[in-house]
């Protein structure tokens, strides 16, 4: 009976039903049901996400999904953020743009992360897609303001231009003037990563003529006394990032700024605040109660001022702040920001030998106690104890992302001088929904046993300076069923665990190991035995063959792929 | 799966002869793997314990890790580190690698690893759950006493740090990769590449913040952190990044750059009559400079391109935004500007 129904189910009905299914995971699942569903699904798929640009080729994607409107690609491995991936490794977007320029003439959105984007790519984008709307370049590099000028000049329907944390060759600020005077559809502009001044008058005019602008993140070069005029032109702003938030105190400037902020009734998110001076803090008090997101991670104000500010933000859901907040500030947050869901505390002086602020494990415990919805944490500190971690775990079983960075590698529990195995063990045991975990401090194989046993929903694990033997790695690889990304540095893991769990690697997106003890022989073996894995040995000191067999490789990046070996490997990558 | 079994052969078998190529081991029959593992690992344990003392057989490529060690003064123990280093040395202990400059690798290291081997029976890979727990406990028990013994070392190390606040800022990924023989002075604290895990944008921002706000006596301008600038070379397919903070003078910088980019000039060595890579001396770049083939230039804050070397080093690190190794012919006219700038600054 059911079988008959599925044959006679018209395709348009299927397509209509599918249109309500939006997540990539679900769409992928739909396509596996049967051949006819695969066909219907692939013709109506509008958004594609490629987590590793080398896992599949652009031709394969465009062949399978002919009607795509939105593409998201990720390139380099996460540790590239910390300069562990040499320049020239890869992740060039141009081949993708080239293919898509002919296959997807109606493409509207491109979102890239950690990819190398050239000016030619940007120019090609600007000329190929008539209805292009959204360009998000997150942690990308390789382009200059020339490419940006092309986007500004040619993309008549552009809505979003977001350059978050990209490295831009900033030749001049004049690219902004390339937006034609008739252009008015800007909704979101994020230029916070740019170094040089943009033409301010062009910016003012642009902001003034775009009534739908809801996100504006300025760069550091925009001075404080220019903010008011921008805000007054865009009182509908929902998200705003200031430039350098410092100037000599002038009461007229302060009151003008205060007035401008007050007129922004929709403001929910603030960021920027480079070089912040406390004198101009009061200007934002009027919007604090409506704020759900506050990024003070570049603000160099101290704890008392921070407390005054954050104490007014009772609806805060996301807070990024420097460790100037100190334990006392975190206690204040625990008391007032009951809606807090995400907290990131960055180090103000990461390379200093002695702590410069009083931020310890206690601050973390306080927020874990006081903020019932807290589930995402990134915390840099200098001391931690098992007791504190156990407390956090017990307080917040709803934790989904927990990244702890104790600044000095291999720091033990400062109370007992023991490894922090038990503490992290408690985290994985109690937080059953944990998806992302970063470890630090003194850790033995035992912590990996805990992780392998309990962290069944863990998708991403970052490990540094931890473990004793391959047993540790084996626990993780054999126990963590949902593991997709594993990145390891400076750990005594060798060949055994990887080779024993070779099959696991095909179920993961990628594995990164640097400064470990994996031999080139093992890499070669793995590469031979597993044709659907790309095993890349990144070694800048010369061909690994030229060293003795058992010499460990510098860096190893393994990822699954259906595209075969890549064509653009530089000289220092051996596969 | 027989495949994993086969692979594990060479853990036990490698002790037979470190000189033997591991590939030979791979070809040995899988059927005998499990039993061989156990017996040979036991044998290996005996071998290693007798050869423990003062063995610093680490190949040069491990220097990176060793010189990264901040735990303990030279001679003290760092247990967590040991298994890694000892595992390598087991494979290559007789290979006569040059001794590492940092004598952090000490006997305790190998003991740690071999005990772990003792604890974790070679068969762990075959029988999953039950055995692993047993084995693990053994390993765990073995670890803790050592852990306790060595904790004093860890705290000692913390005290030791202030004595040499910024001794070795030379740690730089590019530099190390360029020169395998890199040997840092035995230092209590060396900066590790990419640690703490903070993005460059944030690091550079904070570095300039600290430069403004702190006036500590650490000796370096800019206060802390690192300063990555891009270095491009005409004709090279991609550019490199170097951390200016890890060099103390122009000589160090030029030698590092020359090593880094030598792989690009090799192709041109013949035509320009330069010697091969091995013969490149420290001042090779300066030689190149004088030979007017390549010139090292930099772009400063005012977006002017200047010759490297004309201003004092401190000023250079503060104003340099990026560098370019350009052909001598293109660099004509830079020198006078550099001199003018110097004058105007003074």
TrEMBL record, chain A:
Entry-linked InterPro entries: COI1_F-box, F-box-like_dom_sf, F-box_dom, Leu-rich_rpt_Cys-con_subtyp, LRR_dom_sf, Transp_inhibit
SMART domains (alphabetical): FBOX (SM00256), LRR_CC (SM00367)
GO function term, MF aspect, one: auxin binding
Cited SUPFAM superfamilies: F-box domain, RNI-like
Gene3D superfamilies: 1.20.1280.50, Ribonuclease Inhibitor
Protein name per UniProt: F-box domain-containing protein
Biological process (GO), any one: pollen maturation
GO CC terms of this entry: nucleus; SCF ubiquitin ligase complex
Residues of the F-box domain: 9-50
Source organism (scientific name): Cephalotus follicularis
Pathway: Protein modification; protein ubiquitination
Pfam families, per database record: F-box_5, Transp_inhibit
Annotated transmembrane regions: none
PANTHER family per record: F-BOX/TPR REPEAT PROTEIN POF3, PROTEIN TRANSPORT INHIBITOR RESPONSE 1
Subcellular location as annotated: Nucleus
Keywords: Auxin signaling pathway, Developmental protein, Nucleus, Ubl conjugation pathway
Automatic annotation (TrEMBL), chain B:
UniProt-annotated location(s): Nucleus
Domain PB1 residue range list: 226-328
GO CC, alphabetical: nucleus
Gene3D superfamilies (UniProt xref): Phosphatidylinositol 3-kinase Catalytic Subunit, Chain A, domain 1
Family matches, as Pfam families: AUX_IAA
One BP annotation, GO: auxin-activated signaling pathway
Annotated TM spans: none
Region described as Disordered: 24-62, 162-189
InterPro entries, per database record: AUX/IAA_dom, AUX_IAA, PB1-like
PROSITE patterns (UniProt xref): PB1
Composition bias, Low complexity: 27-62
SUPFAM superfamilies assigned to the protein according to its UniProt record, in alphabetical order: CAD & PB1 domains
Record key words, sorted: Auxin signaling pathway, Nucleus, Repressor, Transcription, Transcription regulation
Subunit details: Homodimers and heterodimers.
Family, per entry: Belongs to the Aux/IAA family.
Function: Aux/IAA proteins are short-lived transcriptional factors that function as repressors of early auxin response genes at low auxin concentrations. Repression is thought to result from the interaction with auxin response factors (ARFs), proteins that bind to the auxin-responsive promoter element (AuxRE). Formation of heterodimers with ARF proteins may alter their ability to modulate early auxin response genes expression.
Protein name per UniProt: Auxin-responsive protein
Organism expressing this protein natively: Cephalotus follicularis
């Amino acid at each position: 009976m059911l079988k008959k129904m599925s044959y006679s189910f018209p395709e348009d009905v299927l397509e209509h039903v599918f249109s309500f299914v939006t997540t990539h995971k679900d769409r992928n699942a739909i396509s596996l049901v049967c051949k006819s569903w695969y066909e219907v699904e692939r013709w109506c798929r509008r958004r594609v996400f490629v987590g590793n640009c080398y896992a599949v080729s652009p031709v394969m994607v465009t062949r399978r999904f002919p009607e795509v409107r939105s593409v998201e690609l990720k390139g380099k491995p996460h540790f590239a953020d910390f300069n562990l991936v040499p320049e020239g490794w890869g992740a060039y977007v141009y081949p993708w743009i080239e293919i898509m320029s002919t296959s997807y003439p109606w493409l509207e959105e491109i979102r890239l992360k950690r990819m190398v984007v050239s000016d030619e790519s940007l120019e090609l984008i600007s000329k190929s897609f008539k209805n292009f709307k959204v360009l998000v370049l997150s942690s990308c590099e390789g382009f200059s303001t020339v490419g940006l000028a092309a986007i500004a000049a040619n993309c008549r329907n552009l809505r979003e231009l977001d350059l978050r944390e990209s490295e831009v060759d900033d030749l001049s600020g004049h690219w902004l003037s390339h937006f034609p005077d008739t252009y008015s559809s800007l909704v979101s502009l994020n230029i916070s990563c740019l170094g040089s001044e943009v033409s301010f008058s062009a910016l003012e005019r642009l902001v003034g003529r775009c009534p739908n602008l809801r996100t504006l993140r300025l760069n550091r070069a925009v001075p404080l006394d220019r903010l008011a005029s921008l805000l007054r032109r865009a009182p509908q702003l929902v998200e705003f990032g200031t430039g350098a938030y410092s100037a000599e105190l002038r009461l007229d400037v302060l009151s003008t700024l205060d007035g401008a902020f007050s007129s922004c009734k929709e403001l929910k998110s603030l960021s920027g605040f480079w070089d912040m001076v406390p004198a101009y803090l009061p200007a934002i008090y009027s919007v604090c109660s409506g704020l759900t997101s506050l990024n003070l991670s570049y603000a160099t104000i101290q704890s008392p001022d921070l407390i005054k500010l954050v104490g007014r933000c009772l609806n805060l859901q996301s807070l990024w702040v420097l460790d100037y907040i100190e334990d006392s500030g975190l206690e204040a947050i625990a008391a007032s920001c009951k809606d807090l869901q995400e907290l990131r505390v960055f180090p103000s002086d990461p390379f200093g030998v002695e702590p410069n602020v009083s931020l310890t494990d206690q601050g973390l415990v306080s927020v874990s106690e006081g903020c019932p919805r807290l589930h995402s944490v990134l915390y840099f500190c200098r001391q931690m104890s098992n007791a504190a971690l156990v407390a956090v775990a017990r307080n917040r079983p709803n934790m989904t992302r927990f990244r702890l960075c104790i600044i000095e590698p291999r720091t033990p529990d400062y109370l007992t001088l023991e490894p922090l195995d038990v503490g992290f063990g408690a985290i994985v045991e109690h937080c059953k929904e944990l998806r992302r975990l970063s470890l630090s401090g003194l850790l033995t194989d035992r912590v990996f046993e805990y992780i392998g046993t309990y962290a069944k929903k863990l998708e991403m694990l970052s490990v540094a300076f931890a473990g004793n033997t391959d047993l540790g790695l084996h626990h993780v690889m054999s126990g963590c069923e949902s593991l997709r990304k594993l990145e390891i540095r400076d750990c005594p893991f060798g060949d055994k665990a990887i080779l024993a769990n070779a099959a696991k690697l095909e179920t993961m997106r990628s594995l990164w190991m640097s400064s470990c003890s994996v031999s080139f022989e093992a890499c070669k073996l793995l590469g031979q035995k597993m044709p659907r894995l790309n095993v890349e040995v990144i070694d800048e000191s010369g061909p690994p063959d030229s060293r003795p067999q058992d010499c460990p490789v510098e860096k190893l990046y393994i990822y699954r792929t259906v595209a075969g070996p890549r064509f653009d490997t530089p000289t220092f990558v051996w596969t | 799966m027989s495949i994993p079994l086969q692979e594990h052969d060479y853990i036990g078998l490698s002790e037979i002869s470190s000189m033997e190529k591991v590939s030979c081991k791979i070809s040995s029959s899988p059927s005998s793997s499990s039993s061989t593992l156990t017996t040979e690992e036991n044998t290996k344990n005996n071998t290693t314990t007798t050869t423990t003392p003062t063995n610093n057989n680490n190949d040069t490529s491990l220097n990176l890790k060793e010189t990264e060690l901040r735990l303990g003064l030279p001679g003290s123990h760092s247990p967590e580190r040991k298994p890694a280093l000892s595992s390598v040395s087991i494979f290559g202990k007789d290979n006569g690698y040059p001794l590492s400059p940092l004598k952090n690798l000490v006997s305790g290291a190998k003991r740690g690893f071999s005990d772990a081997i003792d604890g974790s029976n070679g068969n762990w890979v075959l029988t999953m759950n039950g055995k692993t727990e047993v084995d693990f406990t053994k390993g765990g028990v073995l670890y803790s006493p050592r852990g306790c013994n060595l904790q004093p070392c860890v705290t000692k190390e913390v005290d030791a740090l202030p004595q040499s606040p910024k001794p070795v800022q030379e740690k730089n990924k590019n530099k190390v990769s360029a020169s395998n023989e890199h040997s840092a002075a035995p230092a209590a604290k060396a900066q590790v590449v990419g640690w703490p895990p903070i993005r460059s944008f944030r690091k550079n921002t904070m570095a300039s913040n600290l430069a403004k706000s702190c006036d500590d006596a650490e000796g370096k301008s800019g206060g802390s952190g690192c300063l990555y600038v891009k270095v491009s070379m005409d004709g090279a397919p991609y550019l490199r990044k170097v951390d200016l903070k890890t060099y103390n003078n122009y000589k160090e910088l030029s030698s590092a750059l020359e090593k880094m980019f030598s792989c690009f000039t090799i192709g041109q060595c013949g035509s320009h009559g330069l010697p091969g890579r091995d013969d490149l001396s420290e001042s090779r770049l300066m030689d190149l400079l004088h030979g007017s083939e390549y010139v090292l230039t930099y772009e400063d804050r005012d977006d002017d391109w200047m010759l490297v070397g004309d201003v004092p080093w401190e000023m250079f690190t503060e104003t340099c935004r990026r560098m370019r190794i350009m052909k001598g012919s293109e660099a004509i006219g830079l020198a006078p500007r550099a001199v003018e700038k110097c004058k105007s600054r003074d």
